Please model this.
Amino acid sequence: MYGVTLLTKQEVIKVTINSLLSTEPVASQIETTILKKGIHMADRNGVEINVKNLTHRYTSKTPLTFDNVDMQAEPGESLVIIGRSGCGKSTLLHIIAGLLGGYNGTVQINNKDVKEASSKWIMMFQAPHLFPWMTVEQNVGTGLRFAGWSKDRIRERVNEAISLVHMEENAKKNTQDLSGGQQQRVALARSLVMEPEMLLLDEPFSALDAFTRASLQKDVRAISKQLGFNIVMVTHDIDEAVIMADRTLIMAGSPGKMMHDLRVDLPDPRNREDKDVRAKRLELMETFNQAAGSLAGGH
Model:
């Protein structure tokens, strides 16, 4: 079963909180759909991310979450932050998304300070967060309605997004009548309809079985490359980082520190059984263990 993240209705609407893709591979289908139907939502290039000297603590009486963190990402880049529980990686993700304040340092998207959340920066958790009493079309168009779009523009954009995830035959159905995989397709369409510049992933695949998780990892990466948006993901799963990342940042310690920045120069699609993928996994695992060990030895 999928985990549940408790959010207010306002948060769901403002940030267009969504979840995972379907359990079926969809990346190649999406590419074909874009080419055949001339869908224009692919003309985007993501964002530039700059984090400098970032330090955070939740209250004046609590210890530092992380200390003096620097990180950068180029437009369209897939960046995966690897770290054990307690190093502050999820807190860092929420700060980049504009969902959390109370820090010292600089967080900029496209050279502008992040002061609040944006509908272009979409956070993915474990659950779809759909409105079960609404149809597929209504769910996908929720963000556009709150943005004040006209009915004609909403209809056009919603139809495009539903086509991308191959849910045309279910467009009029209530989401509560759909399977789990179909609901996840709706959640994906709801994110695509907002033309995201950045997708922030807080371990959204952790509650899934291994087969489904592997399919989703490949699909999310492929779709991000096809549509041009950034991925910023946090995980403790080395295999996931190898499949998803252009670059990996290794975070360790408490308070957390950025220890290593490693490129993952592997062709797509990536197969876990490929020798280059296995070699990169081993490299990341060794570097991760060394980073954790060096901090532990310093205490």
